[in-house]
Design goal:
Uracil-DNA Glycosylase, subunit E, binds iron/sulfur cluster, 6-stranded mixed sheet, alpha/beta, 6 strands, 2 domains
Length: 312
Amino acid sequence: MKDSVRALAAEFKQFLSTREEDDLMPAAYTQAAAHVSAPSKADAPAQDHLTIEFVREKKKKAVSAATSAVVSATQNNAPAGAANAQEISLPISQPMPQEKSMSAAEKQALLDEIAEEIKSCKRCPLCKTRLNAVPGEGNPNATLMFIGEGPGFDEDHQGRPFIGRAGQLLDKMIAAMGLKREDVFIGNIAKCHPMVNPENPEAHGNDRAPNAVEIAVCRKFIERQIAAISPKYIVALGGVAAKALISDTKSLGALRGKFHLLHLDSVELKAPVKILATYHPAALLRNPNWKKDAWADLQMVMAEMGLQRPQA
Ligand code: SF4
């Protein structure tokens, strides 16, 4: 075994033995620890379990990538050249690379670029029947995003998300949180209108949820939008969006009532994003009895964000 591979094996051992809480300790704390006598970990700032889970996921991905590199280098009997060793050890010996934080103008430019790609996308059959693709809209610097499953009749006709009756209810929900529609970003996982009968796009009541294939093909767009905006919180509207973004097949009823960690397939986030599932506004229109539960969900987000309900 080459020396470089032995060194990597030792690094792995060290890497895997650290707790996610250790990885999360601020640098200042770590530096101070070198100068004072054995501080207790209890002195470090508390981290919530979702943040720890986020770091754990990052660690798993880094280990997986580095393991593949080591296996490949060993199988190929690669020379232990400096460039090779550096390439292999980077994921585990260097801090997690931090993306450059973008200005609102840079984020908007990126969102515009993604929107143009969406409008010309022909990756799934929904492109053949859409009147307009619906990329999403809102504040490029939003702390909070609302994400539904896909556009409906009104959205397909106007190319904007949540503008029909369900959208008007969503506006009221946002206002009840003490926010305006312009404060948040609103979008869907599928960007084109899924229809029960695709031959009749002018028919009302022709909406359906996107299927698994449509979600799988289209989700890269919402993932890139989330990465560009870098929100702290997402409210998933309805079971389809919740299951896709939390990556859990449980029912909406089982997913509601607590924050989850956002799960993305195609991009790596620089910070954890908390996601809360609630009812889709269209479902609330059909079942007004669920509004009380939906309001309880939104209040959880308000408490996290420090928002107050506006005075009547
Ligand atoms: S639904 Fe998404 S993947 Fe399908 S055509 Fe529209 S933008 Fe492309």
